[in-house]
Amino acid sequence: MGIDNVAIKTFNSSGAQSVCRANEADETKLIESQFLTKCTTEYINGSGMTYIPGTTGLDLTGSTARFDTFHLPSDCDAISDIVYSAREVSGTAFLVTDINKIEVKVGNLVVQTIKPSDITSRNITELAYTNPAADPVFSIPFIGRSKNVRNSFLQAGAITNAMSLKITYVAAAAPTKLNTSLCVTTHQITKTEKDFLAKNIINRVLNVSQNVETKVPGTSSDTVAEVTIDLSSVNINVSHLLISGARGGTDETVELVLGNDRTGNIPIALLQSKYNTELFSLAGRHFHRGDDSVYLIKTADSAFSTAGIPFSRLNNKKLILKGSFTGAAVMSVTACGTQIQTTVGGSISFSS
Questions:
Q1: Domain boundary at 197, 222, 253, which?
Q2: Which CATH number fits the domain that encloses residue 133?
């Protein structure tokens, strides 16, 4: 029993994961490791911030959902952070749940769809946000958000595929108007690097997440039930799963099934983020109870490790929750991990 062998069993030495990982020596290459590799001289980069105004007086009132579209700067070489702001002009206070989804586009291709639960769960566990659900200013966990430029989204070499964000809001019952904006952290690289980009295939590791939501039917009293969350749509290299929206008693358990391997039934109390995150390179100082509780299942040695499990190579992927559920709820799973960004010939593609 256990899933600790799944990553090794599913490793493909010719796949995208082999850009950063190996399981056998290659005699044609120098041996590199965390212990043996010497430090190297790196090219300098320039960094700065760009403000992008959104809609002034965006009216969310009515039965039709409203949206903002932000076109990120195409003249920068890389993007590592995007901070969103929504200031109320009138009406009720803005909540993250007033957003239905954020679609991240590269060119005309939607490369990531972000849900409110992704924002809340990832910002609690990665940035130690104290109350992200009610914060009108927050970092968007887009593909390429990173604390360093090494894992940031690389736009250089494919400027025709500039990034854009479409933010769709939930229609508000009460009058609500917003002024919206983004503040983007951007970077420039040297001419030497740009010349190399123009002539070569570049593979880089990006931090990314994918969302799966399941509605849980409930009653006015505790109901013992088993809920299966289908993870078949997840196709990234997964280092960990964040579960939110779990409203059960102390007897609720979680089991992760991957192919023919499974974790066994883990009491959900053992997955609470305040006990389970800091040794996993995540922020564990703030733990939320109630609706903001986040539960962590590890599938790699550390968060966003390239030694995660390639879910695209597994057919049977699901989470099974057992316990007493009170009231209807939406159970959300944020699968976090990595993808490979490939830049070649002026185009960008992503693979797991």
A1: 197
A2: 2.70.9.10
